[in-house]
Design goal:
about 120 residues; six-stranded antiparallel β-barrel; globular; single chain; mainly beta; 8 strands
Length: about 120
């Protein structure tokens, strides 16, 4: 049986505030408590993280992982995001409703808490 997949914002939090980000397709475990992205498995911090909601099960690095928003305001703080090639068209067309930008694979985004 296939697990549910979704295009999501995936941001590593090396300093606890902002870090490198990607938009890519993740798959959820049957229980929904862990997420797989590429060769990484993330486990939920169950609301105990600071500016992070998942942890890399192998390395212990903290991440902010969330669904992508139509308005593009996915980051907590301003950062640059890379969009995985295998989701780029779907992201711009289905999520952002901006097919004219479907060639864009990297962008600077303002965060929810940026001034």
């Amino acid at each position: 049986m296939a697990h549910r997949t979704e295009i999501m914002w995936i941001e590593r939090k090396p300093d606890g505030i902002v870090g490198p980000a990607r938009i890519g397709r993740v798959s959820f475990s049957k229980s929904g408590r862990s997420i797989r992205y590429g060769d990484k498995i993330f486990e939920s911090l169950k609301r105990i993280g600071f500016k992070a909601n998942y942890i890399d099960a192998r390395t212990g690095e903290e991440y902010w992982i969330s669904g992508c928003h139509k308005d593009g305001k996915d980051a907590l703080y301003s950062t640059t995001v890379e969009i995985d090639e295998n989701v780029r068209h779907e992201y711009w067309i289905k999520i952002r409703n901006k097919p004219e930008l479907s060639h864009v694979s990297s962008m600077k985004v303002a965060g929810k808490y940026s001034r």
